[in-house]
Amino acid sequence: MGEKLVCAYCGEEIEGEPIRRGPRAYCCEACAFEGSRSTDCAGRTDVSQASLKEELEFRENPPQS
Ligand SMILES: [Zn+2]
């Protein structure tokens, strides 16, 4: 209770009932549709490329704090 949900697509604060798609919550059906679609389409290639790049950078420069 008291936890504020923001739309996983547009970032607006969700008032009332969120639209849920798996772990994400959206403010409206349109955002849920666009949000899940962009994750499905762009997400996979983005993730594999980004994680590969990050992996290489991580090996070269391990974070030490
Ligand atoms: Zn939204």
Keywords:
65 residues; mainly alpha; two-stranded antiparallel sheet; 1 helix; 2 strands; binds zinc ion
Word description of this protein:
The chain has 65 residues and is mainly alpha-helical. It has one domain. It is 49% helix and 9% strand. Strand 1 (19-21) and strand 2 (24-26) form a beta hairpin. The longest helix is centred in the C-terminal third of the chain and has 32 residues, at 29-60. The chain is elongated and about 45 Å long. Bound molecules: zinc ion (ZN). Residues 7, 9-10, 12, 26-28, 31 line the site of zinc ion.
How does the SSE layout of this entry go?
Blueprint: E1 19-21, E2 24-26, H1 29-60
Antiparallel strand pairs: 1-2
Bound molecules: zinc ion.
Zinc ion binds near residues 7, 10, 12, 27 and 31.
What is the helix/strand order?
A: EEH
Ends apart, CA distance between termini: 35 Å
What structural class results from the helix and strand content? mainly alpha
Coarse morphology: elongated
- Helices, by number, come to 1
Instruction: Tell me the major beta sheet.
Output: 2 strands, antiparallel
Bound ligands, named by name, code or SMILES: zinc ion
Overall average pLDDT? 80
Q: Specify the helix fraction band.
A: 40-55%
Radius of gyration: 16 Å
Largest beta sheet: what is the strand line-up? 1-2
The low-pLDDT segments are: none
Tell me the strand percentage band.
Answer: 5-15%
> How many beta-strand elements?
2
Count of spatially separate domains: 1
